[in-house]
Amino acid sequence: xxxxxxxxVLTTDLPEHGLSAGDIGTTVLxxxxxxxxxxxxxxxxxxxxxVVTLLAHQIRPIAKDEIAHARHVAVxx
Length: 77
What we know:
The protein is an all-beta fold and 77 residues long. The chain has no helices and five strands. It has a single domain, classed as SH3 type barrels (Roll), CATH 2.30.30.40. The protein has a five-stranded antiparallel β-sheet, with no helix packed on it. Strand 2 and strand 3 form a beta hairpin. The relative contact order is 0.28. The mean pLDDT is 94.
């Protein structure tokens, strides 16, 4: 089960937030026993992009054998 402050992987594209499946975020709040979570996504420089509330099927835990991948994202100034 995903807990608060866990790193998670987005499983679906969210173009309205500038996010793509595979982006990594941090769970800041778990809703209704894990039915959903509020997740913060940040650039590698530490700038928050969006904080979004997602359903459980839209995120998953990070696996131990995965590697992070960097990509450019448009960030409002």
